[in-house]
Write a structure and sequence with these properties.
With 245 residues, the chain is an alpha+beta fold. The protein is 25% helix and 37% strand. It has 5 helices and 12 strands.
Length: 245
């Protein structure tokens, strides 16, 4: 039965591929309340001035939603943050999902994170496990997929984090937010421990003037995931030296 389920998911998605060539997806990012509660509990136990604790707590308790846009066409996609005017004028904790753009090229099997501090980073694809769980998101039947994401701590070590994606085979493209792609259908929701990103609007085959995919400049310097992590270690060590001096 499990094999039949997988075959149906793949057949349903890719049999209709010609119907979907391009699109713009709007996503909403929110910080998870469970994460906020845990963060504030840890914050209260720290030996720092009460006024600082209160300021940080207010920032998280009043965090606004983030809006993201995913533009895709053929084998390419571009995912980026679309800040509100209020977020541009003041510091906002937001959803915790970050503001970094991501470029994906399926033909070249590349996912590029355009880090503001580290430059362009080539990231490894996730290894997904599709389950039999389903749920409705925006009127579309979505299937659950899980993966283990390897991340790098600023303290200098690697660690793993579980991620859940919900994809809709009704949209036969394998794109999604950030690096959460590569599934047989458009990813409509991503659940991480800190945040949840959910699609709120899907526009298929928009006019060319509305669709914009920011590609890498010819000859652009791209570093590996491992090289980026080495730079993080160096930057952290330098900051510690400056702080101690």
């Amino acid at each position: 039965m499990r094999n039949i389920f997988y075959l149906l998911v793949f057949f349903f998605g890719f049999s209709a591929y010609a119907q979907t060539g391009s699109g713009i997806v709007t996503y909403k990012g929110v910080i998870n309340q469970k994460y906020v509660d845990s963060f504030l509990t840890d914050l209260n136990q720290k030996d720092i001035p009460m006024n600082i604790k209160q300021g940080v707590a207010d920032m998280y308790l009043n965090a606004s939603e983030d809006e993201y846009l995913l533009h895709f066409k053929d084998d390419e996609s571009y995912f980026y943050h679309n800040p509100t005017l209020a977020q541009l004028e003041t510091y906002d904790a937001g959803s915790g999902a970050g503001t970094t753009p991501f470029y994906t090229n399926n033909t070249k099997e590349t996912i590029i994170e355009e880090s503001h501090s580290l430059g362009k980073i080539a990231l490894p694809s996730l290894e997904w496990t599709i389950t039999s769980k389903t749920k409705n998101i925006g009127g579309y039947t979505c299937y659950q997929a899980t993966a283990t994401e390897e991340l790098f701590s600023r303290k200098g070590g690697y660690y793993n984090r579980e991620v859940i994606a919900w994809f809709a085979p009704e949209f036969p493209v394998n794109f999604g937010p950030q690096i959460y792609s590569g599934l047989p259908g458009l990813v409509l929701q991503v659940e991480r421990d800190k945040f949840t990103i959910t699609a709120t609007n899907i526009e298929l085959n928009p006019s060319g003037k509305d669709l914009s995919i920011k590609r890498l400049d010819e000859g652009a310097k791209v570093i590996t995931f491992e090289e980026a992590n080495e730079r993080i270690k160096e930057m952290t060590a330098e900051n510690e030296r400056m702080y101690n001096n």
